[in-house]
């Protein structure tokens, strides 16, 4: 029992410390990302985005110094809430930036509702319902979400590529559902088909796609593939190995730089695969180029080009700092003025103008890209077109959009 | 074999019929009603082949696990980490030298050495303490997973095997006959067939090693009665080290094979540990034949589950495990209860 | 077996050590000086994790059966709470009254635990750890994949305790006391149970199953009943866990978390029911404050190393370590006495965990 006394004494000492009170003029900002587990690399890049924004403002906004406190989750919603609770209740941060992934985002939104005096800005999480259904008054998302990312891709596949019937291969959880929805909704409205029995939902983390590849139908024009990371790499290799010859259409993270540049065989057959997303590595625009240059200068050991995680964290952090400047660092009265400033904010980002709608979700530009073979033989994404100012309801009214229903395996039915 | 037919005539006939039916389903051109019931033949045959080849991979991983347990009663829950370590080391070597086979050999050796170190430095000190050994392997696997994440990050790695191993081959199996009368043959990735061939070769090699060599006989004697083997003057510790080296080395070897067939990424350690566990629980802990049978069953169950009812694939695997435990707690081929 | 004699243990107030009283006063008074964060996320969460780890300590320490599926059992109870009660996801949520939901969830968890026990105890002891690990992993994959019942990858949110007697039980202070009552209740029950006929029988089976079988004990049944009781402890822990998080998703029952429970029990010490709680406090403090001290990135390395060191050098965990240190201080040079001292301190465990 004696041991207990010591442990308890230690706890006692810690308990009495209470939330560290910041110097009166400082503003405490918490940033939450996955700094442990398999997504560590992505979380670190998200943190680079936060730091990049802070460096741009010299860690000062609205005349006050900004103190950054970091929190880490392992990508599970439980750990995200525990980490954000520590930031808010123990470290006493007034603004939270984060989290990284969709299910974490939903959990943090729920937590935000219990902390009305703290303002939350999204990191890079991209689940639809974080802002679409029962949003939190104090949760802002200046980055776009999974369905928005697909803007223009359905039209492009139907009109330019001439596809009429597509099969779907995607991981079996909410983010790919959202992407499939964002792609099929316009594609089917134009008259395209994607029968329910030609949609294949594989468990996330599945490595062996050969049986699924064998089950893919022959009578379709293309396959829409929404897989990410290792799953995408595995599928592409195995598809090539088994002699597959149908053209592909990619989700936002299916043919991104991390997949194209993964260690191993070159995958020349993906040349010509269209895709869409919130960033495009090769966008020939001074704003983007400047951003990439700043990123490279600040983080020589980072990625060759900022990932969409760094980009999203950067934009959300920058929004917070700009709004702080506008209200001169006034966070009194439950941060009321600060939130008003955020709601009315419209600013220039490396990827175009960004503002938020009435549910505090971003309206921003989306990039339509296609995989090409670069001059040195490397595969890269070429920007085909910029879809300007895409909103969360994809151009229709909020009520009409809700009628489409929750994203899922069979939405839209499209047969 | 003859014994089996005499004793279980009924089951022998059933088994024969099932085999004949499968062969017919593989080689015949499917009539329409069969396509109606099972979907296209291409899907069925491919899934069957995938199941068998995945079973081959599982056998490679699980054989080392079961070998170590059989002799030392050591449930090595770091076996998955050894698989992943082998894959990473093999990748580094293959990438730098450009020689895939060299990667394979170095992975086997390096992981075998790590196994020897574990046996000499840790497990020898806690012999006859099964549970503590197992807890130690859990600790090692936590640390190893994090260390590998630190070194190789979360990136996905894929091997570049020689070109003749990569690509698809036409199998002499007709998929469908087109209206024009031309037969369409089934295409299948060459490397997966190579995996199966390697697994069969390793299986036969292990069998010969265990049954036809002096050391193999010592090992089998040790499996039956460790104390008695020691009493006959054999240096049991040396035999232990050798078996640990082979078992661990097989895990590393399987890492390169599996990493080439699929890919290498964090989390694979748990996946292959689970596969090994289920395979040996079903097949019987400590039995090489059991590992082969278990690997085949689990590989087929997983692939048919994925192709025909993806959501419940895991449950199928798990159900097989529970049924086997309920009917034969020692596993299908397990000798001891 | 005569059911009346099953739990006829002896328990006397005279045995209570002064440090127990101090601890009790501290635990009760804790919310009066700690902040909400410390009451809820450190205090209550440690008690919940400790309760779940206690269910493992019971099986492993007294029965020699190391089950990695205790978190899975707790997780099933958590899921049942969301499925049978209310949640905000629009999937399942049958809306049963809270007391019925709690009872059915805990019983469901206990039955699941019994089932795991029935499957694993028929085999050799070392099989247990493998089978329970396989069960834990399979359950994780299944809930992640099943949308009809478990709402797959997303899981459930909006699971809350009822407002009862005008108190919202998820507020830090009420929730802390709720967790404390549960933890202390099970702590006392397990301590009592260890001295009962049933508990002594279980320990005897751990040390020598063959002899116990010869004495006429139904060894298998005895072990399965132990699984049932540990299932109740874990199930209640799971109910508290879902109320604490307000949500349950596959990540809640992941393999890494299941192993964390083992780490907590082993690091705390498996010879006395206080061990799991010590382990839980250490773990929760580390989990929350490691990021302020070290690079969070290598958190798992720290946890793994602590676990490995304990298994290698102090098989009885922090508790054993403390006992050893204290004995060395008090009875320096007198090995005989110190050995006696250790035994007197832990009347519950006549043999060590490793003897199984």
From TrEMBL, chain A:
Sequence similarity: Belongs to the leucine-binding protein family.
Residues annotated as domain Leucine-binding protein: 27-372
Domain of life per record: Bacteria
Protein name per UniProt: ABC transporter substrate-binding protein
Signal peptide bounds: 1-22
A Pfam family matched in the record: Peripla_BP_6
Keyword line: Amino-acid transport, Signal, Transport
Organism of derivation: Sneathiella sedimenti
Keyword Glycosyltransferase: no
The UniProt record lists the keyword GTP-binding: no
Automatic annotation (TrEMBL), chain B:
Transmembrane region(s): 12-31, 51-70, 77-94, 100-123, 135-152, 193-210, 238-265, 272-301, 307-327
Cell compartments where the protein resides: Cell membrane
Major location (coarse): membrane
Record's bilayer topology term: Multi-pass membrane protein
Keywords noted in UniProt: Amino-acid transport, Cell membrane, Membrane, Transmembrane, Transmembrane helix, Transport
InterPro entries linked to this entry: ABC_transp_permease, BCAA_transport_permease
Keyword Transmembrane: yes
Record carries keyword NADP: no
Record family assignment: Belongs to the binding-protein-dependent transport system permease family. LivHM subfamily.
PANTHER family hit by this protein: ABC TRANSPORTER ATP-BINDING PROTEIN, BRANCHED-CHAIN AMINO ACID TRANSPORT SYSTEM PERMEASE PROTEIN LIVH
The protein's name in its UniProt record: Branched-chain amino acid ABC transporter permease
Organism: Sneathiella sedimenti
UniProtKB/TrEMBL annotation, chain C:
Keywords associated with the record: Cell membrane, Membrane, Transmembrane, Transmembrane helix
UniProt key word Membrane: yes
Transmembrane segments: 12-31, 37-59, 66-84, 96-119, 126-143, 175-194, 215-244, 250-270, 277-294, 300-322
Record CDD domains: TM_PBP1_LivM_like (cd06581)
Subcellular location, record wording: Cell membrane
Membrane protein topology class: Multi-pass membrane protein
Keyword hit for Cytoplasm: no
InterPro entries: ABC_transp_permease (IPR001851), LivM-like (IPR043428)
Protein name in UniProt: Branched-chain amino acid ABC transporter permease
Organism this protein belongs to: Sneathiella sedimenti
């Amino acid at each position: 029992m004696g041991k207990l006394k010591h442990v308890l004494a230690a706890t006692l000492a810690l308990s009495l410390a209470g939330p560290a009170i910041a110097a009166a003029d400082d503003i405490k900002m918490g940033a939450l990302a996955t700094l442990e587990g398999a997504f560590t690399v992505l979380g670190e890049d998200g943190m680079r985005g936060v730091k990049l924004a802070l460096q741009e403002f010299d860690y000062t906004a609205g005349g006050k110094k900004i103190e950054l406190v970091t929190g880490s989750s392992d990508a599970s919603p439980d750990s995200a809430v525990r980490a954000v609770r520590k930031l808010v209740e123990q470290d006493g941060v007034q603004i939270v930036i984060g989290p990284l992934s969709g299910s974490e985002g939903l959990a943090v939104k729920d937590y935000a509702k219990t902390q009305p005096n703290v303002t939350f800005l999204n990191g890079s999480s991209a689940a639809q319902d974080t802002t679409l259904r029962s949003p939190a008054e104090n949760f802002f998302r200046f980055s776009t979400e999974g369905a928005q990312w697909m803007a223009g891709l359905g039209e492009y596949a139907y009109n330019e590529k001439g596809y009429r019937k597509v099969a779907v291969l995607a991981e079996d959880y909410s983010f790919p559902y959202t992407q499939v929805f964002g792609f099929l909704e316009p594609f089917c409205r134009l008259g395209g088909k994607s029968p329910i029995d030609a949609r294949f939902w594989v468990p996330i983390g599945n490595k062996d796609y050969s049986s699924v590849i064998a089950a893919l139908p022959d009578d379709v024009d293309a396959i829409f593939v929404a897989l990410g990371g290792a799953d995408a790499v595995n599928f592409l290799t195995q598809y090539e190995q088994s002699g597959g010859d149908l053209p592909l259409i990619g989700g936002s993270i299916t043919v991104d730089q991390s997949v194209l540049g993964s260690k191993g065989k070159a995958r020349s057959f993906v040349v010509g695969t269209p895709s869409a997303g919130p960033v495009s590595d090769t966008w020939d625009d001074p704003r983007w180029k400047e951003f990439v240059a700043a990123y490279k200068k600040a983080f020589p050991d980072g990625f060759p080009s900022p990932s969409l995680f760094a980009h999203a964290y950067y934009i959300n952090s920058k929004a917070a700092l700009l709004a702080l400047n506008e209200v001169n660092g006034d966070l009194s009265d439950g941060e009321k003025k600060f939130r008003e400033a955020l709601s009315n904010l419209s600013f220039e980002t490396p990827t175009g103008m960004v503002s938020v709608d009435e549910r505090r979700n971003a309206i921003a530009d989306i990039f339509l890209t296609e995989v090409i073979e670069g001059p040195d033989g490397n595969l890269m994404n070429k920007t085909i077109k910029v879809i300007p100012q895409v909103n969360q309801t994809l151009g229709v009214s909020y009520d009409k959009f809700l009628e489409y229903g929750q994203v899922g395996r069979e939405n839209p039915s499209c047969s | 074999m003859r014994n089996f037919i005499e004793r279980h005539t009924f089951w022998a006939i059933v088994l024969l019929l099932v085999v004949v039916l499968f062969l017919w389903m593989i080689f015949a051109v499917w009539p329409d009603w069969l396509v109606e019931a099972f979907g296209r033949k291409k899907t069925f045959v491919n899934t069957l082949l995938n199941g068998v080849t995945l079973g081959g991979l599982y056998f490679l991983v699980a054989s080392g696990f079961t070998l170590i347990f059989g002799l030392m009663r050591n449930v090595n829950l770091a076996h998955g980490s050894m698989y992943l370590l082998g894959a990473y080391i093999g990748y580094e070597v293959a990438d730098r030298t450009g020689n895939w086979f060299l990667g394979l050999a170095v992975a086997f050796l390096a992981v075998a050495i790590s196994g020897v170190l574990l046996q000499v430095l840790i497990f020898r000190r806690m012999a006859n303490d099964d549970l503590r050994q197992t807890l130690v392997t859990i600790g090692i696997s936590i640390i190893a997973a994090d260390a590998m994440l630190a070194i190789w990050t979360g990136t996905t790695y894929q091997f570049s095997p020689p070109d003749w191993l990569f690509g698809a081959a036409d199998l002499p199996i007709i998929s469908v006959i087109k209206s024009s009368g031309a037969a369409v043959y089934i295409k299948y990735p060459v490397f997966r067939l190579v995996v199966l061939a390697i697994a069969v070769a390793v299986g036969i090699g292990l069998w010969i090693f265990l049954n036809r060599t002096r050391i193999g006989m010592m090992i089998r004697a040790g499996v039956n009665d460790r104390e008695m083997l020691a009493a006959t003057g054999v240096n049991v510790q040396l035999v232990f080290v050798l078996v640990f080296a082979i078992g661990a080395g097989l895990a590393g070897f399987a890492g390169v094979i599996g990493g080439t067939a699929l890919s290498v990424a964090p989390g694979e350690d748990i996946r292959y540990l689970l596969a090994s566990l289920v395979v040996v629980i079903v097949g019987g802990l400590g039995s090489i034949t059991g590992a082969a049978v278990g690997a085949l069953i689990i590989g087929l169950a997983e692939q048919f589950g994925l192709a025909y009812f993806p959501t419940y694939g895991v449950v199928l695997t798990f159900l097989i495990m529970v049924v086997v435990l309920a009917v034969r707690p020692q596993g299908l081929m397990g000798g001891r209860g | 077996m005569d059911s009346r004699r099953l739990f006829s243990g002896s328990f006397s107030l005279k045995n209570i050590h002064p440090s127990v009283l101090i601890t009790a006063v501290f635990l009760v008074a804790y919310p009066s000086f700690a902040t909400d964060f410390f009451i809820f996320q450190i205090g209550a969460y440690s008690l919940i994790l400790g309760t779940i780890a206690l269910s493992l300590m019971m099986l492993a320490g007294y029965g020699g059966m190391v089950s990695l599926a205790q978190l899975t059992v707790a997780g099933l109870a958590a899921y049942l709470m969301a499925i049978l009660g209310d949640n905000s996801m629009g999937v399942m949520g049958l809306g049963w009254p809270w007391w019925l939901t709690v009872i059915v969830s805990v019983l469901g968890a206990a039955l699941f635990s019994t089932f795991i026990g029935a499957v694993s105890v028929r085999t050799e002891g070392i099989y247990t750890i493998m089978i329970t690990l396989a069960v834990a992993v399979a359950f994780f994959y299944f809930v992640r994949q099943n949308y009809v019942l478990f709402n797959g990858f997303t899981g459930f949110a909006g699971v809350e305790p009822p407002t009862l007697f005008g108190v919202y039980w998820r507020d830090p202070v009420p929730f802390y006391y709720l967790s404390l009552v549960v933890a202390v209740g099970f702590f006392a029950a397990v301590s009592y149970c260890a001295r009962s006929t049933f508990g002594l029988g279980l320990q005897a089976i751990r040390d020598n199953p063959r002899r116990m079988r010869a004495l006429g004990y139904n060894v298998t049944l005895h072990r399965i009943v132990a699984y049932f009781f540990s299932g109740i402890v874990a199930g209640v822990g799971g109910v508290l866990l879902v109320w604490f998080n307000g949500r349950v998703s596959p990540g809640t029952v992941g393999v890494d978390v299941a192993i964390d429970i083992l780490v907590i029990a082993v690091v705390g010490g498996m010879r006395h029911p206080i061990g799991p709680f010590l382990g839980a406090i250490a773990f929760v403090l580390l989990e929350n404050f490691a990021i302020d001290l070290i690079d969070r990135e290598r958190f798992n390395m720290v946890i793994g190393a602590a676990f490995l060191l304990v298994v290698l050098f102090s098989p009885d965990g922090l508790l054993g370590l403390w006992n050893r240190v204290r004995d060395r201080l008090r009875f320096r040079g007198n090995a005989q006495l110190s050995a006696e001292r250790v035994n007197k301190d832990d009347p519950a465990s006549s043999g060590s965990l490793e003897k199984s």
